[in-house]
Amino acid sequence: MASQTEENYLKSLFNLANEKDEVNISELASQMQVSMPTVNSMVKTLQKNGWLIYEKYKPVTLTPAGKKDAALVIRKHRLTEMFLVNKMGFGWEEVHEIAEQVEHIHAPKFFERMDEMMGFPTIDPHGSPIPDKLGRIQEINYLSLTECKAGQLVKLAGLTNSSTEFLEFLNGRNLSLGTELRILSKEAYDHSIVVSYSNHTSETLSEKVCEKLLVKVM
Amino acid sequence: MASQTEENYLKSLFNLANEKDEVNISELASQMQVSMPTVNSMVKTLQKNGWLIYEKYKPVTLTPAGKKDAALVIRKHRLTEMFLVNKMGFGWEEVHEIAEQVEHIHAPKFFERMDEMMGFPTIDPHGSPIPDKLGRIQEINYLSLTECKAGQLVKLAGLTNSSTEFLEFLNGRNLSLGTELRILSKEAYDHSIVVSYSNHTSETLSEKVCEKLLVKVM
DNA sequence: CTACATTGTTAGATCAGTCTAACAAAATTG
DNA sequence: CAATTTTGTTAGACTGATCTAACAATGTAG
Ligand SMILES: [Mn+2]
Ligand SMILES: [Mn+2]
Ligand SMILES: [Mn+2]
Ligand SMILES: [Mn+2]
């Protein structure tokens, strides 16, 4: 059974392996906030336990077992976040830190019960998909708000970044998942976008914000 | 901040320090299921951190800070057990193992929210008192069933042992906290007791069971 | 292609938490 | 009280997870 540390490495590896599938030692070190020698020794351990493939001087790759176990940790994390928001009344900006700890609890029934109580949700409070019990993850293809055209009506469905600061910024603007946005105009110079939604008739969103907002065209 | 290991030692120390207040190294070693040298080195650490007082060859004593922090871990444990039973539908025999892990989560709001959602309970699912936010524990003085007399009507209010096996035994007899028992007779030879309750007209409980049942005389 | 920068590895140390073996102090018991 | 048992300590080792310093391989850019 994976230790807390190993579970955290698996999660990072899984998240870094989007698209490229391979992960460099240095990437992993910076993601995990540890030194490269630390990663070097840990990848040897993870390999010994069958979670990844490693060859000297080569980037590492998760094995199918590694991918599955990583997804199951992510499942615990996201179920927890959803439970904290839906059943315990936390704000979406408060739950990540708690889930970072709760995800390491070894008690399948605990998470199954959360799942059940929430009616088997498929996304977490930040719009990210919750892997199923077998570690399968449903890929959702949302558009970034930057890719949308003036005049379009879109619905906020996900985020590419869920830092507390960004979530608090969105709270301050009354933006939450499900909010329908009308794109009023796009500024060619700085790529900012003017939108209207709810009782906000004209809100300007910078490119930095827009690229982090994932939307579904209505 | 206490590590998981330290928190577990504090809890054990607190529980062993009932009455006597002092705890022997060997008691603590057997409680924690580690060797005496391990305890020896750990008590030095705990002393260095201000949680206990230790002198070579003497039993150890928790400091006020040690008692408080121990009680706060026990608070997290018992709030969790109550939450699992009351809000998540677990049986009282399933919750201890999960709480043993959840008690180490460092997130005050998480436990405060549980507390709030349950209406600030004062006992856990096994009848043990839940320490308050300042680590104060309300001592309740129940009677053991062995101390009761024939003819008395008593209510099951607590247990001196909450092992899964014992809880499953009680489940099998339909005995739960709050059950009112009429003591029909006491057997002088083996100290077993015959009781009636709910739709059980005559159930014999061995001394081994009776001494673990804490009751309130009605 | 050589030089320099980047990336990765090795060696060796540290800290927490654990162990066993050997020994020492304290308690018990005849 | 002396012998024996029980309890506690010391020494030394190990594992997991981390670090820094030194070095080696790989990649890049003139
Ligand atoms: Mn998260
Ligand atoms: Mn984590
Ligand atoms: Mn318990
Ligand atoms: Mn515990």
Features:
218 residues; alpha+beta; 9 strands; WH_DNA-bd_sf (chains A, B); homodimer; six-stranded antiparallel beta sheet; SH3 type barrels; binds manganese (II) ion; 40% helix; DNA-binding; Arc Repressor Mutant, subunit A
Task: Explain this structure.
Chains A, B: GO terms for molecular function: DNA binding; DNA-binding transcription factor activity; protein dimerization activity; transition metal ion binding. The structure is a homodimer of 218-residue chains. Among the domains of chain A are: 59 residues, Orthogonal Bundle (Arc Repressor Mutant, subunit A); 75 residues, Ferrous iron transport protein A (FeoA) (SH3 type barrels). By secondary structure, the first copy, chain A, is of the alpha+beta class. The first copy, chain A, has eight helices and nine strands. The longest helix of chain A has 23 residues. The site of one manganese (II) ion (MN) has 5 residues of chain B, from helix 4 and helix 5. Chain A binds a DNA duplex (30 and 30 nucleotides) through helix 3.
